[in-house]
Amino acid sequence: MPVPASLRLPSADDVSAAARRLAGVAHRTPVLTSRTADGRTGARVFFKCENFQRGGAFKFRGAYNALSQLSAEQRTRGVLTWSSGNHAQAVALAGGLLSVPTTIVMPADAPAVKLAATRAYGGHVVTYDREKEVREDVGRRLAAAGGLEIVPPYDHAHVIAGQGTAALELFDEVGALDLLLVCCGGGGLLSGSALAAAGRCPSCRVVGVEPALADDATRSFKTKTLQTTHNPPTIADGARTPSLGLLTFPLVLAHVADMVTVTDEALLRAMFFLWERMKIVVEPTGALAATAAFEAAVPVAGLRVGVIVSGGNVDLRQAASWFASMADDAAAP
Q1: Catalytic residues
Q2: Sheet holding 44-49: strands in order across?
Q3: pTM for the whole thing?
Q4: Strands (DSSP E) along 85-244, which ranges?
């Protein structure tokens, strides 16, 4: 029995094909620079701002690329996914554009802004208790009952290829880079970005960035054995994935140069800089790659560095609370 296309390892050519499908549908997001960021890092830093993407994050790219390749029968039955937020919104939005019914399994404690946006895009949201249930089990049970096609958040060839188009656009706009920093949860964006680099700029080192509190991919990369985590307590909710996937793990091993981690405290400092100095709304996961540059988690001085700002879907009240806590800590004797 042939392996479904969605389960095959994607290539750089698949990323290019995804870019053609997304042309005129996904936003070609801006690339920002900052003299202050350059001075702080000693590098020339280019921020690819996927917080300006449709749905507020890079996830729209992979979701649309996947849903646009469904058969007529699959489109009629509908799709299901599980997500803490950004992929949920992306699938709901893509489903609305393509007239595909969408069912989204989300944790009950997902950020309110992400739950509300997913419903607003037309997704049928089913919540679960992350302390008592496994989202994949909930999702597969619902999909089997309803005959729904599963489009997972990252471990899907078409999703990975779509995510890689953000890095592809970055290379097309700014040219060759020495280093590309990419956040990592399940590894879809990181894998796709690494494939894009392999096709456009093979000399560019691609480095993944995780929260120290959710370092399963880093441990997997270092040991060459798939490692897991369970509901890690990081503020970067998009990186609370249990592990890399069956597709993303080998892609990361084959195409990524290194993996590094940053603390939540450093992540908040970077997020605050992006808000205050660059005037852009960025969620914690979206600031992971920038944090690695600002905190010298990887050497960047003297290099041309690309940073994928993955998204900006953050609860503003929660962000205000985080920033206030930073001020309180700074004022403490």
Answers
A1: 59, 84
A2: 31-32, 44-49, 304-309, 179-183, 205-211, 258-262
A3: 0.94
A4: 102-107, 124-128, 149-150, 179-183, 205-211
